[in-house]
Structure formats: C-alpha cells, structure tokens
Specification:
heterodimer; A: 286 residues; mainly alpha; MetI-like fold; 0% strand; Sugar ABC transporter permease (chain A); cell membrane (chain A)
C-alpha cells in the first residue's frame, strides 16, 4: 500500500508542480497585486480596494464590458446554431459529407490574427467591390461604424468557430441510436418531431460542452478583435481583453489592469459555472 | 421513396454551396497572393490578369522561413 501511494505522488507530482507554478501561484499573486500600487517591478504601498472602486466608474472599461457581453450573446447563439446545422448537414450520409467536414473545419487551422487580417481585407475591399457591382450602398465601409464592426466580428467568429463546434455535435449526433429514430418514424413522427423529441435531448451533453467553449472563447476574444478592428472606431468595438491589455501596457498602470482582470475573471467564471450547472441539469441519461 | 431521394439531392446541393461560401475567404487569400500590389486594389474579386510570384519570393526573403521555424521548435 505504501509503495502504491509513493508511485501515485511520483506520477502526479510533475503535473501538480507545473499547474502550481504556471496557474495557481500567478493567480494568487495577481489578486494580491490588484490591491497594491504595483507598477510591474515593485510595490511601495498596499492600497486596498482603491482600484476596484475606481474601475466601476471607468467608462472605457464599462463600455468594453457591455460590448463584450452583447457580442458573446450574439456569437454564442450564432456559433451553436451554425455548428448544429452544419453537423446535421454532414451527418445526412451524403457523398460529399467527409469533404464538407474538412471544409467547415478548415478555418480552425489558421490562427486568429491572420484570419482577422483576411477578413479585414474582405470587409473593406471585397464588400465595397461587391457593393459597387450590385449598387448597394450598405456594403461600404463595414469596419468604420460600431454596428457593422460588431457584426463583422460576429461573422468572423461564427465562420471560424462553427466548424469546431460542429465536430463536437457530430460525435454526439452519431451516437444517437438509429433504432429510436426508426421506431419514431414508423409511429408517424415527422422529421422535425424526431429532431425535437429524440435527437435534441440526446445531444444535450454536447450543448453543455459547446456552450461552455463558445461562451468562454467569446468573452476572452483578443486576437481577432486586434487584427480586425483594433478597437476602432474610437474604441467602440474594443473588447475587455484588449481594454485590459491597453491599460497594462499602453497606459502602464499594471496594478489597475490587474484589478480589471480579476473582475473579468470572476465574471467569466460565474457565467460559465452557472451555464454548466444549468446545462448539466437538462441532460438526460440513456 | 422518390421524394426522399429528391430532398437528399437538394440537401447535397445546399451543402456544396455552403462549402463554397465557407471557402471563399481562402479563395481570396490564394488568388490575391498572385496579384501585383496595384492589381489588388483595382481588381479585387477576379483572377489575376498577370500571375506574379514576386510576393512569394519577397515574403520568403523577409520572413526567413527556415530560421523562424527552427527557432519555434
């Protein structure tokens, strides 16, 4: 028994130490720094909740938080809707199914920064070229207003993430027992009823995973935001991660940025945990 | 059975169109990489009039791919 315990700790040790050094300790230090006047190098004073009081009156931070929240709601819906639709499409046993899966997954193979630059070109150049061809004024200057910039970000994110989420849905869709669907068909259920009452409840675990992934990814989005709009016009499409980065490295107020990051962390954690809790309750056992 | 066959065909066509839409940014990326700087602005969507490989040689020189990859790994 003793030697089994020793082996247990020997094997788990490296992982625990790595996690401790890379995740747990920085988190604790970070929370501590947010209560001080840390400037990146040294601490001269512990100032308590000063930063936290300040950030609730910080309009830049509040605006970016609101923008991020709106963006997350819309993009989580879009990505999951698209992902599930694509998954349903490629599980229809078409000849092109495997080929289509590869195509839909392809945007994930390229990093967010480069995708952002490609889409920047599309939204500025290609959209205006198409707009001129068909005479639509609305396609001009998509990244120069807040509303269209918002939708540009949503389109980019949906295009990129839908394929990834599709893969998760596919794996659950394929494990739905065929005999259940066939039995329902014999009983006279139409395609929508079969989907609503059999497929949908059985892929509920996929919703838990995908909603969690899309939610946390949308909230933490930084690189696409940076390369597509860079926060412009007038920082109105700036998301929280970018706002925090600017506070820390452009304005050089490290401790204040740290306080923002702690609030952001708590917010994302609270939302994700609530979502997982509610989704878990909805899952059905086979 | 015939109706089922037809709806499957429609779904297949729809899938192919959607796949093409999904790929369109890649089409632009690849096509534009063969255009001259001037042509990118004058001729956004169509295939390039003059194929040029200059962009590739410039990119390869400036990025120094071989060394960057070795540094990464």
């Amino acid at each position: 028994m003793e030697s089994r315990k020793l082996w247990y700790w020997l094997f788990i040790g490296p992982a625990v130490i790595a996690l401790l050094i890379v995740v747990i300790l920085p988190l604790i230090f970070g929370v501590y720094y947010s209560f001080t006047n840390w400037n990146g190098i040294q601490i001269t004073e512990v100032i308590g909740f000063e930063h936290y009081k300040k950030l609730f009156h910080d309009t830049d931070f509040m605006n970016s938080l609101w923008f991020t929240a709106k963006f997350s709601v819309v993009s989580v819906f879009m990505i999951n809707f698209l992902g599930l639709s694509l998954a349903l499409l490629v599980t229809q046993k078409l000849k092109t199914s495997n080929f289509l899966r590869t195509i839909f997954f392809m945007p994930n193979l390229i990093g967010g920064l480069i995708l952002g630059f490609i889409w920047q070109f599309i939204f500025i150049k290609v959209f205006s070229a198409i707009g001129e061809q068909i005479g639509m004024e609305a396609l001009q200057g998509w990244l120069s207003t807040t509303t269209t910039g918002f939708w540009a970000l949503v389109i980019l994110m949906s295009w990129q993430m839908a394929g990834y989420i599709m893969v998760i849905y596919i794996s659950y869709l394929e494990s739905v027992p065929q005999e259940l669907l066939e039995a329902a068909e014999i009983d006279g259920a139409n395609a929508f009823q079969r989907f609503r009452n059999i497929t949908f409840p059985l892929v509920a675990p996929a919703f838990t995973v995908s909603l969690f992934l899309t939610l946390s990814n949308s909230f933490k989005l930084y690189d696409q935001n940076l390369s597509l709009t860079a926060g412009g016009p007038f920082n109105s499409t700036q998301m929280v991660a970018m706002e925090i980065y600017k506070t820390a490295f452009t304005q050089n107020t490290m401790a204040y940025a740290q306080a923002k990051a702690v609030i952001f962390f708590l917010l994302v954690a609270a939302i994700s945990l609530t979502q997982v809790y509610y989704n878990k309750k909805r899952e059905v056992e086979m | 059975m015939k109706a089922k066959h037809r709806s499957k065909l429609l779904i297949g066509i729809f899938g192919v169109i959607l796949g093409l839409v999904w790929l369109s940014p890649f089409y632009l990326m690849i096509v534009n990489s063969f255009k001259t700087k001037k042509e990118i602005f004058t001729n956004v969507l169509k295939l390039p009039e003059v194929f040029t490989f200059e962009n590739y040689s410039v990119a390869f020189e400036r990025l120094d791919f071989v060394r960057t990859f070795l540094t990464l790994s």
